[in-house]
Every structure is written in structure tokens, then in C-alpha cells.
Amino acid sequence: MDTTAAGCHIHYHAVGSGSPVVLLHGGTIDAACVSWPPVVEALAGDYRVVAPDLLGYGESELADGPYSISRHATVIAAFLDELGLGPVTLAGVSLGGGVAIQLAFDRPDLVSALVPIDAFGLGRALPNGLLSYALARFQLPNRLTVAALRRSRRFTRASLGGVVHDLGSLSPSAVNAVYRELQRPTAGEAFRRFRSAEVTRAGYRTTFTDRFQKLSVPTYVLHGAHDDLFPVSWARRAARRIPDAELRVLDDCAHWAPRERPSAVASSVERAISDA
Predict the structure, then answer these.
(1) What CA–CA distance (Å, rounded) separates 98 from 112?
(2) Which residue of 17, 42, 130, 258 could cross-link 266, Cys pair, CB 3.0 to 4.6 Å?
(3) Which residues contact 219 (CB under 8 A, 6 or more apart)?
């Protein structure tokens, strides 16, 4: 399905009926059809599940301009308005988690409950310090990596070892979904624009650490115990600062919970729906 939001073409998947749940995928090489299929399957029997491709990802438009967290949130708010959705239970992983949190601050009228999963915005420090900053400024290594990965499903699978705890348990369907997205001519471009907008020498530009006390929607923080990109200590700090937040740390899980622990993600979303 397709619509226009904030002047941009947005592609989305929608199944089921009932209370609305919106799922926002992550960055790098991702799309709704990459991260969310097992969770959608678990939820679609009881809820209306909507999963958009974020701006520049999947089949959504690669629009001009910066790809900051605030811009992504503006587009998703317009998307929810366009579809007449809201308030919704809003879940997001990694980049999508940061977008979800930003949207909950910007438009709390659209969010009945929030489920940030290994979310961006929980801290400022870059995972590899100045190396992460250099890679964000000089994008050629990322372009070369994408070009190499799209030539080999085996290399693609190996690369996912950086976001999962047990590569051996990762389903072939997850690997195949990433590999298909790599074949898009624009694969990686939205992520490179995101890094340009959000990575600074001092760390991530967008962080909510000093604002969490003002978050006004019920929040259920989900985080992998072995996440090396955004440490679990960030999630614990966020849960302490967000009023009445709940935290669930997932064992045997790193940064990609919707694929590593989809049943746990689905049950947390259902808990958020029932408590909203």
C-alpha cells in the first residue's frame, strides 16, 4: 500500500483489524519487510498492524534533505494523520525506536503506548568513538561494504553477526530479507544520510536522556542483554527516568530483537496495548 505524507511517498504494509499497532523498522539495510514479519504474524490475528517503510527505505521515496530523527518523526506523524490512525501503540527498533520516542514527544495525541526496542536516542556516546564519526563523514567505506554484501548472501549473513547474539539461530528468511533489500540501487543511502545528520564529533546529535522525565505516554522499554551498539545500561537509565516505565531485558538477544526474539517483542506490544 502507498500514501503521501509530508509531501513524500510512503509505502506500508497493513493487516488485521482491531486496536492499531504501528511498527517502525531500523536503519542500515532495513525495511518493514525485513525486521517485522514474525512480529506482524504474531499480532495480526488480534490487531490492526501497520508497518511503514521509513523515508528512503524499502519502497518509500528517497526524498531530498537531511534524514534526522526529527524529520523521520514528522513524516510518520503525517503518515498517521493521513491514514486516520491514532492514538496507536507505537513500537520501533533501533532507528525506528528513536523515531517513535521523538514522535511521542512531538505528538502525544497520536501515541497511546510506546515500545522502544534497542532504541536510538538513549545515549550520546558513539559505539566506536571517533571511528564512528570518521565513517559518518567519509561514506565511501559504507558504499563499498554495501556493494560487496549485495554480491554474496554468505557475506550478508556474516555481517549480521554484529547485530544478533547467536548468528546460528538467525532464520534464513531474515538473511534473505536483508539480501533482497541490498539489491535495491539506493540501498544504504538513507542510512548514510541519517549518519550525516545525526553523528557528530561529540556523539549522537539526538539524545533524549535529559527529557525522559517529560515523556507523557505509557512506555515499555525492550532491550537485548548483549546489544553492543546501544548498551543495556542506557535502557536501564531510560526506564528509571521515564515516569512509570517498564523495562524488559532479553537474554540471548543483541540489537535485532524483532528477528531474534519475535515472540517476546509481540508479547510486550500486547502488554502495552492492554495497559494503554
Answers:
(1) 17
(2) 42
(3) 104, 113, 114, 115, 116, 239, 242, 244, 245, 246
- Name which of 174, 209, 235 is nearest 26 in CA terms: 174
Q: The cell 521509513 sits on which residue?
A: 54
89 and 110 Cβ atoms separated by less than 8 Å? no
Q: pLDDT tens digit string along 235-263?
A: 999 999 999 999 999 999 999 999 999 99
Q: What's phi and psi for 45, nearest 5 deg?
A: -70, -20
Q: Which fold has domain 2-275?
A: Rossmann fold (3.40.50)
8 A C-beta contact, residue 152 and residue 257: no
Q: Taking the CB of residue 173, how many other CB atoms lie within 10 A of it?
A: 11
CA distance 34 to 269: 18
Q: What SS3 class is residue 5?
A: strand
**What is the identity of the amino acid at 106?**
D
CA distances 28 to 18, 31, 41, 217, Å, are 32, 9, 23, 28
pLDDT digits 0-9 by tens, 90-129: 999 999 999 999 999 999 999 999 999 999 999 999 988 8
Q: Where are the domains of the chain?
A: 2-275
